[in-house]
């Protein structure tokens, strides 16, 4: 098994009781390197579906888009040949992951007290949905969209699997996340941050996402604010991204655009959407990062309605508008493919060998953007410490409270690996 790494939050108490914080991403390029070993290249697609537990469909979409670009095949051509199965499966995966984060994971961050939902019931229901999405992973891993042998009938059957998953997912969002239909939620909660908080307060006794919004609002105005520019839509950055991922050592794991760290994810994608404007004016913080994910879920459910042909037209419309779910480009260094996952932009950059198999591969995930040096997470953590006047924790209870506060502040950036804390005194060795 591959070690997925973790996010290390280093808390160092200097002399005079001044506290500093450093956020470090310990993830490595091992997976990408393993996939292009001569003995692995032939089975790279299948291995991607096995290695990545949370977002295998996002990785497969980005990988296939990059391979297609290297072979002169556009995303639009892949979409046409597969009835948009890849993009449809990608959205279902993102919706399922958002549901998990906003119902099960967020519950662990809420203040101690009575559980507001039945964890076992929700976990069972989510497990059933996750199993159906896993079926899509199996289909996607087995059917290569670049292979001429995969006929239209097979892709029609694959599209039907999407149609089978969607109703149960829509019902789960109604019951577990919104407390009403997604359409009703859009009409009720989205006029302003105040309207969303009214919805949250009315449902905070039984819906984890609502309770979370109430909790962060009580932390104070603009709590968990992210002082970081957003990452533009994929078409704007493809040339720079693809070239630097393949040519610059270390870039894939610590990316910067135009020499600046960037924020990716739902808020970055929604920032300029008219429907989200009352929230984007406030800027990214703990409340608006969550609000953006909720907005995106409702819009994604709409995009998936109506069968394969309807989805194809909508995905093509997103591409034409410059905000594609999947994109690709051929650069001076190789080919790059991107996929918009639940957490943000995922990119694969590669070159192919004489047999059309990946010879070099670099992967940049949303976690690399959010937790880059001096990036969004580092700035959020520094602001939390600054609000504490830079004072270190005085006792074990204080230390636990500080860790909890930082976990909550970093939640909106949604690392796909554990967040681990270490405490040091005067720059010395870490202590428990």
Helical proportion? 40-55%
Strand order of the largest sheet: 2-1-7-8
Share in β-strands: 5-15%
> What is the structural class?
alpha+beta
Described by the principal axes of the CA atoms, the overall outline is globular
Largest sheet: 4 strands, mixed
What order do the helices and strands follow? EEHHHHHHHHHHHHHHHEEEEHHHEE
* Mean pLDDT across all amino acids: 92
Identify low-pLDDT runs: none
Q: How many helical stretches? A: 18
**Rg from Cα:** 22 Å
- Total number of strands: 8
Fill in the keyword field for this structure:
432 residues; 8 strands; 4-stranded mixed sheet
Explain how this protein is built:
Helix 5 runs antiparallel to helix 14 and helix 6 runs antiparallel to helix 7. The longest helix is centred in the middle third of the chain and has 27 residues. With 432 residues, the protein is α+β, with helices and mostly antiparallel strands. The strands form 2 sheets. Strands 2-1-7-8 form a 4-stranded mixed β-sheet, with helices on one face. It has a 4-stranded antiparallel β-sheet with strand order 3-4-5-6. Helix content is 53%, strand content 11%. The model has no long low-confidence stretch (mean pLDDT 92). The two termini are 27 Å apart. It has a domain of 266 residues. A hairpin with a 4-residue loop joins strand 4 and strand 5.
């Amino acid at each position: 098994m591959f070690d997925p790494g973790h996010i290390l939050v280093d808390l160092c108490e200097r002399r005079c009781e001044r506290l500093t914080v450093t956020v470090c991403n310990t993830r490595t390029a091992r997976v990408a390197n393993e996939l292009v070993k001569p003995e692995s290249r032939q089975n790279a697609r299948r291995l991607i579906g096995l290695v990545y537990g949370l977002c295998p469909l996002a990785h497969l979409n980005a990988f296939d888009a990059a391979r297609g670009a290297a072979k002169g095949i556009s995303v639009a051509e892949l979409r046409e040949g597969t009835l948009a199965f890849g993009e449809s499966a990608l959205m279902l995966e993102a919706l399922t992951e958002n549901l998990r984060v906003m119902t099960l994971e967020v519950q662990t961050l809420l203040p101690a007290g009575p559980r507001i939902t039945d964890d076992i019931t929700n976990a069972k229901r989510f497990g059933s949905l996750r199993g159906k999405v896993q079926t899509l992973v199996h289909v996607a891993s087995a059917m290569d969209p670049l292979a001429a042998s995969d006929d239209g009938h097979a892709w029609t059957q694959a599209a039907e699997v999407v149609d089978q998953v969607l109703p149960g997912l829509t019902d789960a969002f109604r019951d577990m996340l919104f407390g009403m239909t997604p359409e009703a939620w859009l009409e009720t909660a989205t006029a302003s941050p105040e309207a969303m908080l009214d919805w949250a307060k009315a449902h905070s006794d039984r819906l984890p996402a609502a309770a979370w919004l109430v909790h962060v609002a009580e932390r104070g105005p603009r709590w968990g604010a992210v002082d970081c520019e957003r990452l533009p839509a994929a078409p704007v950055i493809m040339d720079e991204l693809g070239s630097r991922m393949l040519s610059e050592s270390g870039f894939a794991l610590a990316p910067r655009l135009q020499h600046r760290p960037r924020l990716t994810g739902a808020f970055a994608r929604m920032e300029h959407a008219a429907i989200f404007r009352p929230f984007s004016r406030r800027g990214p913080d703990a409340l608006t990062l969550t609000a953006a994910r909720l907005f995106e879920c409702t819009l994604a459910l709409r995009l998936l309605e109506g069968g394969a042909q309807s989805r194809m037209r909508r995905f093509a419309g997103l591409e034409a508008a410059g905000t594609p779910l999947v994109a690709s480009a051929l650069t001076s260094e190789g080919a790059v493919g991107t996929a918009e996952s639940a957490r943000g932009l995922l990119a694969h950059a590669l070159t192919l060998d004489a047999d059309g198999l990946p010879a070099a591969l670099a992967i940049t995930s949303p976690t690399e953007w959010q937790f880059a040096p001096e990036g969004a997470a580092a700035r959020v953590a520094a602001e939390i410490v600054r609000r504490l006047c830079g004072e270190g924790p005085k006792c074990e209870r204080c230390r636990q409270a500080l860790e909890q506060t930082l976990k909550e502040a970093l939640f909106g950036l949604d690392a796909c690996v554990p967040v681990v804390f270490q405490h040091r005194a005067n720059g010395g060795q870490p202590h428990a």
